[in-house]
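Researcher: Here's a chain I'd like modeled. Treat it as a single chain, no partners, no ligands.
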Amino acid sequence: MTGQFTLDHAVVLAANAHAGHRDPHGDPTIVAAIRVMARFDEDELRIIAVLRDTVALSEGRFTVERLRRCGATERTCAAIDAMTARPGEASAEIAKRLSLNDDALTVCEAVLLDMADQSRTSAARRLASVPGDGSEGATDD
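Model: Modeled as a single isolated chain. Structure tokens:
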């Protein structure tokens, strides 16, 4: 790919990598990537956010080197590399690598906030689907 690597390019690559993958609720995993991406105003962080799982989900089709060859910036490649677990890697090693990249930490924080928001939303939906309004058995004493 020649020219500037844009957010459009990143979204296409991410959609390709996420194709066929579903989260525990059965939703396409690209949905979460788009939600996290939307939390940012800066295009570079949006690119990093939407690509964050691309290498891990692609089963070898995408690598950090391939992203680099596609025109992704070194900043993007470094953040994606920092967020991508290696086979057999201990959690402490991942955490150490993440701690050295501010963009990776920023995107990971956004992922955690998104997960918390989704958890609250799911719980609210479950409560809303419970029959009755919760006042059964209440008295006016």
